[in-house]
Amino acid sequence: MDLSIRVAGAAGQGIETIGSLLTSALAGMGLHVFTTETYMSRIRGGLNWMDIRIGEGELFSGREKPNLVVLLAPEALDFLRTQLDEWALVLLNGPPQRGTVAIELAKEAKELTGEAVMANVVAAGAVFALLGYPVANLYSHLETRFRRKGEEVVQANLKCAQRGAELAAPYTGAVLPPQGVGASGFVCSGSEAIGLGAAVAGVKLVAAYPMTPSTGVFTYLATVADEFGIVVEQAEDEIAAINMVCGATYAGVPAMTVTSGGGFALMVEGVALAGMLELPAFIMLGQRPGPATGLPTRTAQQDLKFAINAGHGEFAKAVYAPGTPRQAYEITRRALETAHRYQTPVIMLTDQFLADMRTNMEPLDRGARPVDLHIVEHPDAGYLRYAVTPDGVSPRALPGGDAYVVADSDEHDEDGHITEDLRVRARMQEKRLAKLAGMTAEALPPEWYGPREAVHLLVAWGSTYGPCREAVGLLNAQGEQAAMLHFAQVWPIQVDAARSALALQNVRRVTVVEGNATGQFASLLRERGLLGECELMLRYDGLPFTGEEIARRARP
C-alpha cells in the first residue's frame, strides 16, 4: 500500500522546506519514502513541486498522479488538475474552491507568528492530520531543522504545525494512509550520496563552476569540507576547474570536478590533456536536456555518447552511470579507484532525477577510507614516468620527490620529453590504449533483476534503474514474465557478461528504456555486437520515467 503527496507552489514559498520536513518525519515513522522534484529555472515565481511517495514496501520511483495535493499557490490548481488522481484530496492555501480542503495557510501563519512565510509549516501539520498521523511526530524534525535559528523560531514553527493539524482535523481519514513497517529513518539524496562517497574515498580538492544539476554535490562537499579536510574551489569557469583537477592530480592530490553538459563541453580539452598526461581526473557529469542551455532544471540521459567520446584523439577512459543513491555512493568510490588504478580520466553520469531523488536506506558509512593512489614512494634511479608496460600502466611518482617527473601535453617518450619520433609515438599510443583491456576485464557486469525465465527484458542504464525495477514488479503481477538488465557502467562494457544476459533463450522481446530521443545506449550495444532487433522506449520531455509509465507502455 502506498500513496503520493504533491506539494506545489511558486519558487520562494518554501516547497523544499516542507518537502524535506515531511520526508524526514515520515521516514522517521518507519515508512518507506521516495521523493522527486520538479522545478523551473527561476529564483522566484513559476510553479515548482515535490512529490513524496510513502509506502509499506521499498519504493524506486515516483507516481504518475498524486493522491494528496498541497497547493501553496492557489493558481496552480488549474495547471495541475489534469495530473491528479481521480480521488485526489486537494489542500488549498486560500478561500474555498469546490472539491478542495481550503485553509488560509499564510493568514494562519501570520496570525500566529507575524510571518506569513511559515505557511508551509502550517501545511505540514495539516498533511499529518489528513493522513491520520500524530502531528507530534513532526516536532523533533522541526526542532532539528530550525534549532540554529533560536528557540523562538523553533516554538513558532511548532505552533504553526499544531495549528495546521487542528484546522485539518475535521477531514482526518479522507485519505487512507500506509503504516510504518520499520523502514530506516536515514534519508539521502543522490547528490548527498555522491558527495559523501567522494569525501570518504579521500578526495581533497573539488573545483567546479556551479551548474544545475551538479551543484548539489558541490554544495554538499562544501558543508563537509572541514570534517574531511577538503578544499572546495569555485573556479571562474569550467576550463579552469578541469585544469585545477589536472594540476592537483599531477601533484598527487585526489581531485574531482562536477558539471553539466554545457560546462563539460568547455572541459573537453582538459579531459584530453588528462588522457595525454595520464592523470586520474574524476568528472561527475549531471545530464540535462539540451542542446545549449536547453531545460537546465529538468532531467535527461542525453550525454552518453558525448561522455564516451569526449576529448580529441584516442585514449582510455571509463564511464559509470549509477541508478540509485546507494549505487551512487558506491560507484563514486569505484570511479575514483579506476581513475587512480589506470591513471586516466573517469566520468560518472548522473541527472536531475538521480541528483534530487531522496529515499531511505541503511545509513552510509562516513568513515574515511581513502582509495589507493598507486603512487611509487621511492622510485629507483632509472625511473621513467611513462615506461611502457604490458598493461599500459606506468609507475607514478610525484614531482618534487626522488624522481624527475616530466609532464607535457605534446607526444612524449617514456621519460616525458617531447618527441617527434613516429615509432615512439606509435608505441606510446599503444601503451595508453592498452589500459582498456584491464579496464574492460574489471568492468561492472550488468545487474539482472527479475525471473531468469523472463520473456520480456527491459534494458536500462543509469537513473532508469528504479522505474524499470518497479515496472518489472507491476508487469509480473499481471503475468507478463518481465525482467530488467541494468548497466551501471556504460564504458567499457563487460561484453561477455552482457552478451550472456542478452542472449538468454527465453528472452523473446527486448525493450531499451532511455531518457533521450535517439536511443543512444541501444546504438552503443549494437556497435558492440550485443543487441539485435529491439524496441525503444524513450522519454525526452524533461521529466523522469515512472514505473507505472514503463509498465503501461511495455504491455503488448
Task: Give start-end ranges of low-pLDDT stretches.
Answer: none
Beta-strand fraction estimate: 15-25%
CATH class of the largest domain, named Alpha Beta
Number of beta-strand segments: 20
Q: Give the overall average pLDDT.
A: 95
Query: How are the strands ordered across the major sheet?
Result: 6-5-4-1-3-2-14-7
The count of helical stretches stands at: 20
Distance between the termini: 26 Å
Write the layout of secondary structure elements.
Elements: E1 2-11, H1 15-28, E2 32-38, E3 45-55, E4 68-71, H2 76-80, E5 89-93, E6 101-103, H3 105-113, H4 119-131, H5 136-146, H6 151-168, E7 187-189, H7 190-200, E8 205-208, H8 215-223, H9 225-228, E9 231-234, H10 238-250, E10 255-260, H11 261-277, E11 282-287, H12 304-309, E12 318-320, H13 325-342, E13 346-351, H14 352-356, E14 358-360, H15 422-433, H16 435-441, E15 447-449, E16 456-461, H17 465-477, E17 482-487, E18 489-491, H18 495-502, E19 509-514, H19 520-527, E20 535-538, H20 547-554
Parallel strand pairs: 1-4, 4-5, 5-6, 8-9, 8-10, 10-11, 11-13, 12-13, 16-17, 16-19, 19-20
Antiparallel strand pairs: 1-3, 2-3, 2-14, 7-14, 12-18, 15-17
Helix pairs in contact: 1-4, 1-5, 3-4, 3-6, 4-6, 5-6, 7-8, 7-13, 10-11, 17-20
